[in-house]
Design goal:
Elements: H1 8-16, H2 24-28, H3 34-48, H4 51-58, H5 82-112, H6 119-148, H7 154-188, H8 197-220, E1 222-227, E2 230-235, H9 241-275, H10 285-324, H11 334-359, H12 361-370, H13 381-386, H14 399-402, E3 409-412, E4 425-428, H15 444-454
Helix pairs in contact: 1-3, 3-4, 5-6, 5-11, 6-7, 6-8, 6-11, 7-8, 7-9, 7-10, 9-10, 10-11, 11-12
Length: 465
């Protein structure tokens, strides 16, 4: 993902290619998209002075003829039939529409309902914003560039086009990583204070700053080149293709391998903790309620992470293989492979709202409210209550922290003592265990050791529902 626009790959190879017309056939196949191949071919033709061949093959304005040079008999293998362009346009259009509107609704659900404003959900807002932005500002533009092999959007947007995708992907995956770490801390070490609203904003701001720094070279080296009948947008690295490949590997490690490794470790530990076994004996309903809620949230986030990993894997593999084995770019269907891998990567931006709606009852209630104008969507009173703030929210903690230690006083009569038959003696009863309000007293030792795992004074059921 050194540069999401497909035409970025050919530029480094073009800088090292010779102007010999004998290399033109290889140059034609060097691009990953229609604009890539045609542009490199045209660039070499200009250097060689053989503009007649470029005019005849591409339909561009012809320069002065060069009868002493043989005409190149080259065809553009990346021209697609209209029906295929229509299918790809439909596929990319669906991704953009679902991703933009779905993620905007997710942002509205969280920000417009006070009950949804939790630490995890603030990171989900950041994730939804980055996904919606990439779908709106990158996906469609890159698709148009790949199909038409012509950059229509100017120099400034060329820089943005090469810069923003890496920024957005970095913000997306590190928002997921922050959620994984937050879930880990909340479940494995629940007695520590949770992130405050201010700390959460600082983390989100830091994610974007690091994302900008990582993607800055893409902006710095972005260029447009106006050629006869063509305008190109590409990234020209000062040291050529090796520097481009090195940067691409660094990006893959930082925005794919490392965060997925962190999330894999944290969710594995959390999963073993949550699904590893039950507390022996009977336990209270509060325990089961919070355990079930935590499992649902972790399950939802694991699905989000796995979906992201699957969607982006073919895209990274494509660029690594075509950089190492450049002969793959001569394959007849390489453009279709690129469009398919890029579509799959961009489709990762549209799955999260669907996952939230299917696996979380409050997000599902929020989507029902957003689409209540549809005749087949019915918002029940239960759905309305799901998004309302609980009236006694502070008391929704475990009895371990809300029940005070009390000693009951019992009056005991001893009729066997004739002198004191009407007297009474007060005896202190055994103090109640504060950690088992409403729970079974069996296996109290086992339950008490795990009570802190289930609840903490800093969380409530709302955090996990």
């Amino acid at each position: 993902m050194g540069s999401l626009p497909a035409a970025a790959n050919w530029t480094d190879r073009a800088s090292t290619a010779g102007a010999d017309p004998g290399n033109l056939s290889a140059a034609l196949a060097a691009g990953a998209a229609p604009g890539a191949a045609e542009a490199e071919w045209l660039h070499l033709l200009v250097q060689a002075g053989n503009l007649t061949a470029s005019s005849s093959a591409l339909g561009l304005p012809a320069a002065s003829p060069a009868p002493s040079q043989p005409r190149a008999n080259l065809t553009n293998q990346f021209v697609q039939p209209s029906w295929r362009i229509a299918l790809w346009s439909l596929a990319y259009g669906v991704v953009v529409a679902v991703a933009v509107f779905g993620n905007l609704i997710v942002i509205w659900i969280i920000l417009a309902h006070k009950r949804m404003r939790t630490v995890t959900n603030y990171f989900l807002v950041n994730l939804a914003f980055s996904d919606a932005s990439m779908a709106a500002f990158n996906t469609l533009v890159n698709f148009i560039y790949a199909l038409h092999s012509e950059w229509y959007f100017g120099a400034n947007y060329c820089r943005f086009q090469n810069f923003f995708p890496i920024t957005a992907v970095f913000a997306s995956i590190y928002s997921m990583t922050a959620i994984a770490v937050d879930r880990y801390m909340a479940i494995i070490d629940p007695l520590k204070p949770r992130l405050s609203a201010t700390a959460t904003k600082i983390v989100i701001g830091s994610i974007w700053i690091l994302a900008f720094l990582l993607a800055f070279p893409q902006c710095l080296y972005s260029k447009i080149k106006v050629m006869p009948g063509r305008t190109l947008c590409y990234v020209q690295w000062p040291e050529g293709p090796k520097q481009h490949f090195t940067y691409h590997i660094i990006v893959i490690v930082l925005v794919y391998c490392f965060p997925l490794l962190v999330m894999g470790v944290t969710y594995t530990i959390v999963g073993i903790t949550l699904w590893g076994g039950e507390i022996p004996g009977d336990t209270c309903d509060k325990y089961h309620e919070q355990l079930k809620a935590k499992r649902k949230v972790v399950k939802m986030m694991i699905i989000v992470v796995v979906t992201f990993a699957i969607c982006w894997l073919p895209y990274h593999i494509y660029f690594i293989l075509t950089a190492i084995y450049q002969q793959l770019n001569r394959w007849k269907y390489i453009q279709q492979v690129y469009l398919a891998s890029f579509w799959l990567a961009m489709s990762s931006t549209m799955y999260n709202p669907i996952i939230y709606c299917c696996l979380n009852k409050r997000f599902r209630a929020g989507f029902k409210r957003a689409f209540r104008w549809c005749p087949f969507i019915e918002v029940s009173s239960y759905d309305e209550l799901e998004l309302k703030t609980t009236r006694f929210h502070p008391t929704r903690q475990s009895s371990l922290y809300t029940v005070t230690r009390m000693e009951s006083v019992t009056v005991v009569f001893e009729p066997s003592d004739p002198d004191n038959s009407k007297a009474s003696r007060k005896k202190r009863a055994t103090p109640r265990d504060p950690s088992f309000s409403g729970c079974s007293r069996r296996n109290s030792k086992s339950a008490s050791t795990t009570s802190s795992f289930i609840s903490s004074p800093y969380t409530s059921v709302d955090e996990y529902s």
